[in-house]
Amino acid sequence: MWATIERIEQVTERVRRVHLGGDDLRRFEPGLPGAHIKLFLPAPGESRPPLPAGYEGRRAVFADGVVPPVLRTYTPLRFDPRGHLEVEMVVHGEGFASDWVQRARAGDSILVAGPRGGWEVPQDGAWYLVVADETAIPAATQVLAALPDRELVVALEVIGEGEERRMGLGGREAQWLYRGDDARQAGMAIEQFVRQLELPGGRGYAWVACEAGAMRRIRRHLIGDRGIPPEHLVTRGYWKLGVADHPDGDYGLDETDSPPHAATSQRRRKP
Questions:
Q1: Which end of the chain is least crowded, N or C, by CB within 10 Å?
Q2: How far apart are CA 92 and CA 20, in angstroms?
């Protein structure tokens, strides 16, 4: 689907919110909470990505001499069925998407494909734990909106106070955790918080999305030390320290796991 940038909003010191519009987006289906989309971003110097000449299975094929767009995975923050989509991007060091959102302007176009995946949020929990870093705040926003009115613990890791924002939790508050600007500390504040947390009693569910290594440590702790059933966890590695384009679909699962309450059968839509 084609989408045109209407405006770019500076949300925090490091986060930019891209407001997209267009008639094609009227066909967009939001999917389950936390579902992800693919953005086809144009090469530097271009204001719109090229269209594929065809497809080989799911792989887009481009004509000779055409510079293919760069694909990046995001979870939309919100969607208006009248044809408005909002996506947040973190500006951090060197990275294609980070560079693109800094040079993009109103009127530029991109392609959007999806959504896929997401969480079929169970409604029978006595409590819910939602922890994420800034890359997963849009997905966490969707998940939080889908939770029943039960006991809730929310912890969000950012580099500093300037990255806080209103979360719309209906009177409840999120715990903001600061890690500083050293990327090697990614996920450590979340991990420490979870390890020290006194979990409520009864049936509970946890949704964890952050740096992939920290996510795996937290997952092992919740299963091995806290006794939470794997099927009560959704864990996602949104990025990996030292890896430029960490693949989507990293749930930190081992051979005995399957993605709990995840929509794995949704068909990928062509852009």
A1: C
A2: 22
Residues near 55 by beta carbon (within 8 Å), at least 6 away in sequence: 61, 270
The pair of structure tokens assigned to 215 is 């996510």
What pLDDT is stored for residue 264 in this prediction? 37
pTM for the model stands at 0.86
Lowest mean pLDDT among 18-32, 82-96, 107-121, 193-207: 82-96
**CB-based contacts of 261, cutoff 8 Å, min separation 6:** 119, 120, 121, 122, 231, 234
The CATH number of domain 2-116 is 2.40.30.10 = yes
**H helices of 64-200, where?**
96-103, 137-146, 188-196
| In the chain, where the domains are located | 2-116, 127-239
CATH 3.40.50.80 fits 127-239, yes or no: yes
Number of H helices, E strands in the chain: 4, 14
Selection from 195, 154, 158 nearest residue 178 by Cα: 158
DSSP character at residue 138? H
Q: Is a pLDDT exceeding 50 seen at residue 75?
A: yes
Exposure string (b/e) for 133-168, b if CB count within 10 Å is 16 or more? bbbbbbbbbbbbeebeebebbbbbbbbeeebebebe
CA atoms within 13 A on the CB side of 204: 19
pLDDT in tens, 87-110: 999 998 778 999 999 999 999 999
Cα gap 38→195, rounded to integer Å? 34
Taking only the tens place, the pLDDT of each residue in 154-186 is: 999 999 999 998 887 766 789 999 999 888 888
Residue 221 CA to residue 241 CA, distance in Å, equals 20
